[in-house]
Every structure is written in C-alpha cells, then in structure tokens.
Write a structure and sequence with these properties.
The structure holds two protein chains of two kinds.
Chain A: E1 11-17, H1 21-29, E2 37-43, E3 50-54, E4 57-61, H2 63-66, E5 69-72
Antiparallel strand pairs in A: 1-2, 1-5, 2-3, 3-4
Chain B: E1 25-31, H1 37-45, E2 62-67, E3 70-74, H2 86-96, E4 109-115, H3 119-130, E5 136-141, H4 143-148, E6 151-153, H5 155-162, E7 166-168, H6 177-185, H7 201-214, H8 218-226, H9 231-236, H10 243-249, H11 257-270, H12 275-291, E8 295-297, H13 306-314, H14 319-338, H15 340-361, H16 370-387, H17 390-406, H18 408-422, H19 430-435, H20 440-446, H21 453-462, H22 472-482, H23 492-517, E9 528-530, H24 539-558, H25 560-573, H26 578-594, H27 599-619, H28 621-633, H29 640-648, H30 655-666, H31 676-686, H32 698-710, H33 715-725, H34 728-759
Parallel strand pairs in B: 1-3, 1-4, 4-5, 5-7
Antiparallel strand pairs in B: 2-3, 6-8
Helix pairs in contact in B: 3-12, 7-8, 7-10, 7-11, 8-11, 14-17, 14-23, 15-16, 16-24, 16-25, 16-30, 17-24, 20-33, 21-23, 22-23, 22-31, 22-32, 23-32, 24-25, 25-30, 26-27, 28-29, 29-30, 32-34, 33-34
Classes of the chains: A alpha+beta, B mainly alpha.
Chain lengths: 73, 760
C-alpha cells in the first residue's frame, strides 16, 4: 500500500521507494528507505501534507512524495 | 578491500599548532539543520563572529576566532553531502575546499554536531564526512533533551564504534564546551578516521576506476557517481583522463570525467544497482548494526510527549489554522502596543535634544541662520523620527526569533504548505517570507534553503511584499494619528496596523500564482521538512538576534538616514532666495508701521512668518519638484508634500517619516507645546489644501499605507535581489511590478474609501 493512503496512526515497513531524482534521494537520506519503519502521525488541516514518524523523528512530506513509498502495513 | 589511501585531492597532513604560525588552522562545524550549530559556534567563539550582518538562519559560512591561530567556520545545516539547495551547497563546497574557490584548502578538522535524540539520521551525515579522510570530532549535542525523552547515548561506546572522539555537549548551557575546545586547539589533531563502509562491489570498482583514470581521490569519485546532477559532478565534468591512469587500466577512458560518470551510472543501473539507493542502504544498515547498540532506551520523563500534545492543538484540523491566524495577528498588534511606552521615552529624548540645541543657538551669532535650521529642522527630527521606531523593530525581531527557536515556524510551514501549493510554491517558501516581516534582506537570503531555482526566484520576487520593519514607522504614525479610537475600545488603530500586514500577504498569493503560471512556469516543488521537537527558546539566542537587529537599525539611522535627512533638508531649504526675505521684510515693516504694539500686531507678524516659511518651502528645489509631480499623486488623494515624502523614500522607506518631519518643521510656526511624534501627528492633522480642506483624511492615510505596503522602496533589497538572483533584470522587475501595484492599490483605496465615507 502506498504511504500516501495511510491514515493517522497507521504504521508499517517500507518495502520499496521510487528512488529517482533528487526527491527520491532526499526521501531516502531522511530515513525513508527499504526496510525502515514508518508511521503516519497526522495530516495537515487542509488535507496535505502529512506528518510521519521515521527513524525516531518527525518528518513532513506531501502526499505526492508519499506516493513514492510502498509500505507493508 | 584495501584500506583507502589518501588520493591526490586530500589535504596535506595537518601540522601541529606549534608550526601553524605559517597558516591558520581551519575548523568547520557541520551538522543537520536544527542541531544547535550556531549555538555551539557562539559558545566556542564567545559570540565573536565576524560575519553576521543580518540575523536569520545560517545560510552562509560564518568565521570566528576560536583561539590564536585557529578559526572556526559555522556552516549551514545539511542532511547529506548530496546538496539539494544553495545553502547546503555552501557547506559542501567549504568541505571540498577547491569547490569554494581556487586554491582554498579543505578544513583541517571537521566538528560534526549530532543531535543525541535523533542519532541514526544524524549519523548518516557523520559517516559521509568521515569518508573524506579529514580528522573528525563528533559533538553529541542536546544530550539533556535526549535523556528527557528516554534516549541515553553511550558516548564512549559510540566513539569506539566510529573510531573518532565523541564529546557529549549541551551547547545552550555551555556544557562540554571546554572539553571540546581543548580537543580542537590541541597541538596534535585527531587521527583521520578509517573508512569502514563498503558499497556493492560493482560500485566500488567503478569508483576506483574513475578515481584512477581522472586523478581524483576515492571520496570525490564516489560522490560524483552517487549525487546525480550534484555539485561535484558539475565541477569535475570537464576533467580529462590522466595518461598513465588510462593506460595502466588498459582500454581508453571517456574523453571527460562527466561522460565517464554517466557511463558508469548506466552500467550500474543496468546491472541492477542504483548508486543513491545503495549508499543509503549501506549507511543506514551500518548505523542499525553498529550505532544502535550505543543507544539506550530508558523511561521518558513525564511531559516528554509535550510536542505531541502541543501539536494536537497547533496543527489541529480546525483550530490549527485559526490559532495560526490569531497568533500572527496578536504578534503584529503587540508590536504596536508593547512598544508605545519605550517610543515615548525616545521621542522625549530627541525633543529634549532639540531644545538643548535651540538653547545653544539662542543668542549666538548663528541664531536664525542656516546652521540652526540644518540641526533643528534637519538632523534632529530626521534621525529622531526614524529612531523612535527602534522599540517596535526590537519587538518584531524578538517575536520572529521566538517563533523560529521554539519550533513553531516549521509547523506554520506545515499548515501553510497547501496554501502555498495553490500558488505553485511549498511550505519551504514560508520561512523566508516570515523572516521578511522583520527585514526582506535576511528573508531573501533564507530562500537559499529552497532547492528549485524557479521556486526560489518566485519566493525572492514576492518576499519584499511582506511588510518589513521599515514599514512600521509609516503604519505606526498614520494609524496613531488618523484611525479613530472610538469603536472597539481603542483597538482599531492596532487592528488597522495588523491589517496592513495582510495587504502584503494577500497581494503576494496572486502574484506568486501568476509568476508560476507564466514567467517561472513549473510544477509545484516537493515539500520534505523536518518537524523538530518544541523547545523553550534559548533566550541568549533571542537576545542576540534582537541586539544585532537593533544595532544594525541604529547604525542605519545614524549614518544613511542621517545623510538622507541632511540632503532632504538641503533640498527643502535651498535656494532660500533673498527676494522672499525682502518681500516679507517689507510686509513686516508695513505691519509694524500700521498696527500699534500689542497682541494684534504680534498675531499679524506671526501670520507673515508663517506665510514666509510656506513660500520658502514652495520655492525650494524639492518644493518645485513636488508641485511638478502633484498631478500624478492627486488621484491618490495626496498633496505635493506627501508626494515628495514618498518620492524621497525610494532609497529607504522609513525616510518618509523624516521627510514629513522636516517638511512640517521647516514650514511650522514657532514652537508649540507638543513635541516629536505627537507634534508631527498634530501638524499632519492640521495640514490643509489651499482651499482649506484637510489634506489627511482616513482614506488618504489608508492610501499612503497601502502604497508603502506594496511599493519597492528599498535600495538594499533591490541590490540583494540582484545578488541572490544573479541578475539586475529581476531587481528591475521587482521594482516595476511593486511600484505599479502600489500606485494602483493606493488609487483604489483612496477612491473607494472616499466614496464610502461620502455614503456614511
């Protein structure tokens, strides 16, 4: 399932990341790589972006970017 | 895999400090954003940074002395050596040495600052830098905050795992600083770390080949291969192969390094290896295996989840946006209200100075002369008129510093991202725009955190629309003098003051939207932003920023504004034709002969004095110019004096208040009771058109404020736009579009305002 479809409170293990381009590289450097755990904390009031917990810290990213991350709940 | 040998690009072995008289030891501080680099820098150097003109996030390197012969370099924060934005690029360039400038050496030592509560991600950068072959010291910062959340890092164990010294620190409390400092100034530098990470064999082979064929070290070849489209690849792309390197490996090397890197990447991808992905997997894999055991999880203190509980409100679906708008309004109103008493003191001080000067001139041969006019009508009110706004500016910088330091700014970016996406930008543009409320210049510099050049340029072009602190004098004066206090228990002037900020914001949104649809067309940029834990602001940081801003403002008032005041005074004083003096002397003689001594004669003489001053003013160089431009400003409801004041404010908008003071003081009757701000307000309220109508009505005051909210009246900003965008074209564009909008905005405000007033 795509990370962008996760609801607040849902978590899982990343199984694949679309890693092309500098956005892909940045997402991976920030800790969203294959095998890492990720949890959606909340979604911004206007529906986008989302706040996730990864590597023990909080990261904000847009749903478009979260599209790139395939997670196994 | 053989241990890495320092390649040709590696810095010469560092010399002990005893012999370093030849050359300064250069130590760079590097780390993730928000880990306290600047605080550590300040703690180590004792706030002696040489480059810090404008407060704001560190977007360029700052150099400060650590000890004799040792310089400390504070670099912008970065998550990785693959720089994605201009500020990260500064950090990477300084590390690489020759990228920063011809012949610039690499630093002799790198202090890597790592946030103890967020170790795995911080270690990602640490392991990247350790591969450079430079001596490295890790400062494990904010260990207190980490322990509160139940994270205890075993520094000794981590040092062993990394093979470099690890010093636990709390930079905000100067703990661990002495130990770190001793290590940095010790005669012998720590031994450079050994590389202990291996990329997939296919990648290592490609890297070794590239390094050998083109005569660069392994580190450079690896970064060029991994960071597609990165700085190093671009810097080295034209490099030609070494003769012996190519022959030794057999077969011909591609003609340039750039071509070789691309060919290598293609081979790897075809073989199923993505360089960037391989690097991330390797580093985080090592971190999980080796560094995680150094982290002990203990019970978190009560209240450690404060950030979550605060965010449940501050980023709440419904209340989040409302709290955001309320908070911003509160900040802008508080600036207006809290600063009042301090402003009155400063005003009184300048009033006193004026009286002292007047007393000094009285009875001397200079009384009534040009010099007296220059001091009393030019210099003192010119500087005093602007300087009086220092308290409001100090409060504004304080609020911005608190919002940034507490971690709220990142939440505001999180909340506003969707709105900014509508105009083709992202939450990343929010922070530079917010800093622009203090001053556009640090705001423009803060755009360096934006990766995409088009989005960065759009942000640069709209940032000057945010009402900076130099607009405060205009809003402050006019709101206090012309906005009625009656409704809303005296809150209305403060609310109008706050509303002016929303005029700028409300204009910026459609302008950005239009720019991103036309000139700077492109898809919305990505938004990947760390949301740091909330923390109590470090008050010394807040104080330092207020102090730096106040100092900069005071220097500006004492130099540039002083000079402009004198020039304006001269333009309003000369030619001071003697025919006017003769004409009015004749009138005075007439009055004296016609009227007997007494109050009636005094009144008549005062009237002549008043007319004389008015005539001098109209006849002055600026007065003539003012009457020339009056037809252009009449549709805005302005008379020639306002036109002149606005025109004189193009170099620096706060000058408008000085100009009004000088115009009205030169044209003023002998001293009445009021002084300073209050006097100017009264003079403005009393000012009339030749037919006796009041010049300043509420629509006129609003039209002036709207004009100043939207106009590009700041030479320093235009120069900075040129510097940041690399072209005068964009500075000219900003000037034209903002000035055009300002005129149209002021026109609509006045016309609509007058029509509405007529209805009431």
């Amino acid at each position: 399932m795509r990370l962008s479809h996760f609801l607040p409170g849902q978590s899982g293990k990343i199984i694949q990341v679309k890693s092309d381009g500098s956005v892909g590289q940045r997402l991976m450097e920030m800790g969203l790589f294959e095998g890492a755990d990720v949890k959606v904390v909340r979604i911004a009031p206007l529906g986008d972006p989302m706040e996730v917990e990864v590597q023990g810290y909080r990261l904000s990213l847009r749903k478009v970017e979260a599209e790139r991350v395939e997670v196994e709940p | 895999m053989a241990p890495p040998s320092p390649g040709p690009g590696v810095a010469a072995p560092p010399s002990p400090i005893g012999t370093a008289a030849v050359r300064q030891r250069r130590i760079a501080i590097l780390g993730n954003p928000n880990t306290g680099k600047s605080t550590l820098f300040n703690a180590l150097t004792g706030l002696k940074a040489r480059v810090a003109n404008y407060p704001g996030v560190t977007v360029e390197k700052k150099v400060g002395p650590l000890a004799p012969g040792v310089d400390l370099i504070d670099l912008p924060g970065t998550y990785s050596l693959a720089a994605h934005s201009p500020d990260e690029l500064v950090a990477v360039k300084v590390l690489h040495g020759d990228l920063a400038g011809e012949g610039e050496p690499r630093p002799d030592l790198v202090v890597l600052i790592a946030d103890a509560s967020n170790l795995p991600r911080n270690l990602f950068l640490v392991t990247q830098v350790m591969e450079m072959g430079l001596p490295v010291v890790v400062a494990l910062n904010m260990v207190d905050a980490a322990e509160r959340t139940g994270i205890k890092v075993d520094a000794a164990k981590l040092a062993l795992a990394l093979g470099v010294p690890v010093i636990p620190t709390i930079a905000s409390k100067s703990e661990g600083i002495a130990e770190l400092r001793a290590l940095l100034i010790a005669p012998a530098l720590p031994t450079p770390p050994r590389r202990m990470w291996n990329l997939p064999a296919a990648m290592e082979t490609e890297i070794a080949t590239l390094a050998e064929q083109y005569g660069r070290d392994r580190f450079e070849a690896a970064r060029a291969l991994i960071d597609e489209g990165g700085a190093l690849e671009a810097h080295l792309s034209a490099l030609q192969p070494l003769m012996d390197g190519a022959t030794r490996l057999g077969g011909a090397a591609p003609a340039t390094f750039g071509a070789a890197v691309q060919a290598a990447r293609l081979r790897l991808t075809q073989g199923g290896v993505t360089p960037a992905k391989a690097e991330v997997q390797m580093r985080y894999g090592w971190i999980a295996a080796v560094a995680q055991p150094c982290i002990q999880r203990t019970a978190a203190e009560a209240g450690a989840d404060a950030t979550d509980r605060i965010d449940n409100w501050l980023t709440h679906r419904l209340f989040g946006s409302l709290i955001f708008i309320a908070l911003m309004t509160l900040v802008f109103i508080s600036i207006f209200l809290l600063a009042q008493p301090f402003m009155q003191w400063i005003d009184a001080g300048f009033g006193w100075l004026g009286h002292v000067a007047e007393a000094a001139f009285a009875g001397s041969s200079l009384e009534g002369g040009m010099l007296e006019s220059m001091v009393i009508d030019g210099a003192i009110p010119g500087v005093g008129g602007v300087f009086v706004f220092l308290p409001q500016i100090a409060f504004l910088f304080m609020f911005v510093a608190i919002l940034e330091d507490s971690g709220y700014m990142a939440r505001a970016a999180f909340l506003m991202d969707r709105v900014l996406r509508f105009c083709g930008l992202s939450g990343h543009s929010f922070i530079p725009m917010m800093s622009s409320f203090a001053c556009a210049i640090p705001g423009l510099m803060a755009t360096r955190t934006i990766a995409n050049p088009r989005d960065r340029l759009t942000t640069i072009l709209i940032a000057p629309l945010m009402s900076c602190s130099a607009r405060i004098p205009v809003y402050g004066l006019l709101c206090a003098a012309f906005v009625p206090r009656q409704p809303l228990h005296g809150m209305l002037p403060g609310l109008v003051f706050a509303a002016m900020y929303f005029v700028g914001i409300g204009t910026a949104v459609p302008v950005a939207w239009l720019l991103k649809k036309t000139l700077l067309k492109g898809p919305p940029p990505p938004f990947v932003l760390e949301l740091p834990q909330y923390r109590v602001p470090i008050w010394s940081n807040v104080g330092l920023r207020v102090w730096e801003a106040s100092k900069a403002f005071t220097i500006r008032a004492g130099t540039a504004i002083f000079a402009i005041s004198l020039i304006l005074w001269a333009l309003l004083y000369f030619p001071h034709a003697s025919r006017i003096a003769e004409k009015f002397d004749a009138q005075r003689t007439e009055v004296t002969t016609k009227l007997p001594e007494g109050p009636e004669r005094e009144d008549a003489l005062a009237k002549v004095d008043h007319l004389e001053k008015g005539e001098y003013l109209r006849d002055s160089l600026l007065g003539r110019l003012g009457h020339g431009i009056e037809p252009a400003v009449m549709p805005l409801g302005w008379d020639w004096r306002i036109g002149i004041a606005a025109l004189a404010s193009f170099p620096a908008r706060e000058v408008v208040v000085s100009t009004l003071r000088i115009i009205y003081d030169l044209g003023a009757d002998e001293d009445d009771e009021a002084a300073g701000q209050e006097k100017l307000a009264q003079q403005l309220q009393a000012s009339t058109w030749p037919d006796g109508r009041k010049v300043f009505t509420l629509p006129v005051a609003l039209s002036i404020m709207v004009f100043f909210a939207l106009c590009a009246q700041c030479a320093a900003t235009l120069v900075t736009i040129k510097k940041e965008s690399g072209s005068w074209k964009w500075a000219a564009f900003t000037f034209v579009y903002m000035t055009g909008l300002a005129y149209v905005g002021a026109f609509i405000t006045y016309q609509v305002g007058t029509a509405l007033m007529a209805q009431l």
